[in-house]
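quick one before i forget lol
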Amino acid sequence: MIKQMAPDQLKQLYEIINDGAQVYQGVIPADCWHEPYMPLEELRKELAAGVEFWGWEENGRRLGVMGRQDRGEVYLIRHAYVLRNCQQQGIGSRLLAFLRADLEKPILVGTWATAWWAVRFYQKHGFKLVTPTEKDRLLRTYWKITDRQVETSVVLGDERWFATLSYLS
């Protein structure tokens, strides 16, 4: 079952994100890894910036979370994490389908370039990589991340994103 995360579930959200993010350790650049992966203060800033988190729940236990953020002309899928012992069970796919279902604007996703499994996950769901030049522009426009993270990330867009590009040309 998918439910929106309530403000009083901050600790649970923090624990799921930081457990699921352990798969990045040793994969993303060492200078980008830290413990915890997402400090509580950073999570609070993400919530204050309008990231809405939704969680997959089974038997009263939250197993995965995914956020979305309205950035005007696009939506961003943000912070998709599943507990390590629950990965590869379709939880991320169900969360993504749910978060996409009622959106009419283009959707963008940013992830680490070296996280091949994350890139493949989004490609499996119809997202395509944008060009490196467009990636840099999008990350600087819609995300608040460091230059180092811009340098080491990729952006994928859904079919609506690429339709807007063909419309503009």
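fyi The chain has one domain: 2-168.
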